[in-house]
Amino acid sequence: MSSQGNTSQIQGSIVAIVTPMHEDGSLDFDSLTRLVEWHIAEGTDGIVAVGTTGESATLDVVEHASVIEHVIKVAAGRIAIIAGTGANSTREAIELTQTAKKLGADAALLVTPYYNKPTQEGLYQHYRTIAEAVDLPQMLYNVPGRTGVDMHNDTAIRLAEVDGIFAIKDATGDLVRGQDLITRLKALPNGGIDVFSGDDATAWRLIGLGAKGNVSVTANVAPRIMHEICSAALTGNAALAEQLNAQIAILHQILFCESNPIPVKWALTDMGKIPLGVRLPLTVLANEFQPRVHAALLESGVLSR
C-alpha cells in the first residue's frame, strides 16, 4: 500500500480524457482547457491524462508531458490528476513517471507492457522497479484485450505488498475474477490496494463488490451521470446505480464500435466539444457508424432531440 501522497481522495468517476486535436493532428489545448473545466463542473472526480483514450501511443515525449502539464495547470488542484506513464520498456516508463512527478501529478497509471509479452515474473519486476525508482503513487492497469498480456490476480497480490503501489485498474470486465481480487486484497495484512473498474458496462457492479471507482471512457461524453452512478454504487445504493447505468448502457457498447478512442472522439465532435482530429494509424469514425453513435447520444440524453 502506498505511503506516499494522498490517494485516499482518488475514487468515483475518473475520466480517461481524450486528447483534443485539430484536423491536421496538432494538439488543441484550448479544447482541452474547456473539457477539463466541463468535467469539473459536471462532477467528474478525477482525470487520467494521456492514457489509452488520450492516444498516448501517438504522442511524442514532449507532447506527452505538455498534455499532462496542461491538465494539471487547468485543474489547479480541484480534482485528482493521474498521468498515464505506461510503456513496454521499464526504463521508458520510469522516465515518463519521473516527468509526471515533476509536473505535479497526483498519481501515475501504468498499463502492462504490451507487445513484448512479459511473464508474470517480468510484470512483477517491471512494476516493482518503477515503484522503487519514482516516489509517485502508482496504479497498475490490466487490459489484456489491448496489450496481449494478462496480469494474473496472484501477481497483483504480490505487487500489493510493494510500497508506492496504491491501486489496480481492472479492465477485464470479469466480475468473478474482480470479486476474487478484491476479496484477496482486503485480506492482506497491509490492507491491500484499491481496485478500480476499467470496464464501463460492469463498473457499477464491481464498485458494489468493493471497488473504489471507475476509470471511464463513457464519462468523456456523460460525465455527470457517470459520477452519479459511481456515487450511488459507493454509497451502497445498487438499485439507483443500476437504474442510472441503464440510461447510458447503449453508450458503453457503441463507444467501442471501432477501436477506442475513435468513436468517443467523434461523439465529442458531434456534441460540439472538440474538432474532428485523430492521429494515424487511427482514423475518423467510419461513415456507417456515425448515425449509430449520434442516435446513441440522443437515446441516452447526452444530446437533446
UniProtKB/TrEMBL annotation:
Pathway: Amino-acid biosynthesis; L-lysine biosynthesis via DAP pathway; (S)-tetrahydrodipicolinate from L-aspartate: step 3/4. One of its GO terms (biological process) is diaminopimelate biosynthetic process. The record marks A57, N88, E92, Y114 as: L-lysine inhibitor binding. It is found in: Cytoplasm. The active site is at Y141 (proton donor/acceptor), K169 (schiff-base intermediate with substrate). NCBIfam families: dapA. Catalyzes the condensation of (S)-aspartate-beta-semialdehyde [(S)-ASA] and pyruvate to 4-hydroxy-tetrahydrodipicolinate (HTPA). This is 4-hydroxy-tetrahydrodipicolinate synthase. The gene is dapA.
